[in-house]
């Protein structure tokens, strides 16, 4: 855990300056803590155009202004984010290479046998959580399935015939499908893509029967009338689509949401972590940035490094029983 009292005197002064002075002083502090002559590489381990990519580009542009350094967003899609995260843990722990990470997806990588990614929880240094995204199940507007029960009962009548697109095996949308299968006893065919954008395109093109994705994945097409959202996997209805009932309201005890944040390689100096986390905090507290996230049906939810690490540990504990009782396609 990172505690300010453990920082060296020089780093403590830098952090104090960062919190107590204006943008120019913050940039000067960042420049002294971050030795990144080529700027910062921010990995988005998903395909371009999806929710994490969109939010990452908003954050990247804002961090450039906060830090006075260039921030290049790099899409490294594949294996439900394992490709990008694998690249991150091989990078130097100097704060110049960062990556987005989605919980609980990352937890499944190193806890689900027989996966053998080149990392564990100890391989990452949390910087801060950015946003939350509840999950949904959606179909095209011309689908014969008008309710979630319609979809479930059709899958019960014809097991392993109804297809559902996801952003990757054991990514959060896929976990949502597994949970729905678990509580209903039915079996879908999960079709895995390299991110949210291609999984949405699959439903738009009629290549699958349904989409499993975040509220942000479905929102634009819900508003346009192209998609019918059948349920939200949250405790309460989502304010961006208030007419859509929760899965619990419909008798299915499924709760699924992604928590998306930024991580660095383990061993990144505490002074660098504090500078980056403080910059993230300022971005997320900005009213314009918060509205941008809300417009995409994302919930701004900053967590500092300690809180993010504790949340990560809690996620591991909650996902363990799920992974022991359900298995991916």
Q: What does this protein structure show overall?
A:
The protein is of the alpha/beta class. The protein folds into two domains: 4-132 and 259-325, D-Maltodextrin-Binding Protein, domain 2 (3-Layer(aba) Sandwich), CATH 3.40.190.150; 134-232, 3-Layer(aba) Sandwich (D-Maltodextrin-Binding Protein, domain 2), CATH 3.40.190. The protein contains twelve helices and ten strands. The radius of gyration is 20 Å and the shape is globular. It starts with 8 loop residues before the first helix and ends with a helix.
Give the topology.
Elements: H1 9-20, H2 23-33, E1 40-44, H3 51-67, E2 71-75, H4 82-89, E3 97-103, H5 105-111, E4 124-140, H6 148-157, E5 163-166, H7 172-184, E6 189-192, H8 196-204, E7 210-214, H9 215-224, E8 227-232, E9 257-265, H10 270-285, H11 287-295, E10 299-303, H12 305-325
Helix pairs in contact: 1-2, 1-10, 2-10, 3-10
Concise overview:
The protein is α/β, with parallel strands linked by helices. The protein is 43% helix and 20% strand. The protein folds into two domains: 4-132 and 259-325, 3-Layer(aba) Sandwich (D-Maltodextrin-Binding Protein, domain 2), CATH 3.40.190.150; 134-232, Periplasmic binding protein-like II (D-Maltodextrin-Binding Protein, domain 2, 3-Layer(aba) Sandwich).
Q: How many structural domains are formed by the residues? A: 2
CATH architecture descriptor text of the largest domain: 3-Layer(aba) Sandwich
CATH topology of the largest domain: D-Maltodextrin-Binding Protein, domain 2
> What is the rounded distance between the termini?
37 Å
């Amino acid at each position: 855990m990172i505690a300010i009292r453990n920082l060296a005197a020089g780093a403590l002064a830098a952090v104090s300056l960062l919190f107590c002075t204006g943008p120019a002083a913050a940039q000067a502090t960042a420049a002294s803590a971050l030795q990144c002559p080529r700027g910062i590489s921010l990995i988005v381990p998903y395909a371009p155009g999806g929710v994490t990519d969109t939010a990452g580009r908003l954050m990247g542009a804002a961090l450039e202004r906060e830090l006075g350094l260039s921030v290049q967003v790099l899409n490294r899609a594949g294996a439900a984010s394992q490709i990008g995260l694998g690249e991150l843990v091989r990078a130097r722990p100097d704060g110049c290479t960062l990556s987005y990470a989605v919980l609980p997806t990352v937890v499944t990588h190193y806890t689900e046998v027989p996966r053998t990614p080149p990392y564990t929880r100890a391989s990452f240094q949390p910087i801060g959580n950015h946003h939350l995204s509840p999950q949904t199940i959606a179909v095209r507007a011309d689908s014969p399935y008008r309710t979630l029960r319609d979809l479930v009962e059709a899958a019960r009548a014809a097991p392993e015939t109804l297809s559902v697109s996801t952003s990757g095996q054991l990514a959060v949308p896929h976990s949502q499908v597994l949970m729905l299968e678990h509580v209903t006893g039915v079996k879908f065919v999960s079709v895995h893509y390299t991110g949210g954008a291609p999984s949405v395109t699959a439903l738009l093109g009629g290549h699958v029967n349904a989409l499993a994705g975040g509220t942000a994945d479905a929102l634009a097409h819900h508003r346009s009338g192209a998609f019918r959202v059948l349920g939200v996997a949250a405790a309460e209805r989502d304010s961006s689509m208030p007419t859509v009932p929760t899965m619990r309201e419909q008798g299915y005890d499924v709760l699924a949401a992604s928590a998306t944040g930024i991580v660095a390689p383990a061993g990144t100096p505490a002074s660098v972590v504090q500078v980056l986390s403080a910059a993230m905090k300022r971005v997320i507290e900005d009213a314009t940035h918060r509205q941008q996230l809300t417009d995409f049906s994302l919930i701004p939810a900053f967590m500092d490094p300690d809180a993010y690490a504790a949340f990560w540990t809690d996620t591991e504990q909650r996902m363990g029983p799920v992974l022991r009782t359900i298995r991916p396609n």
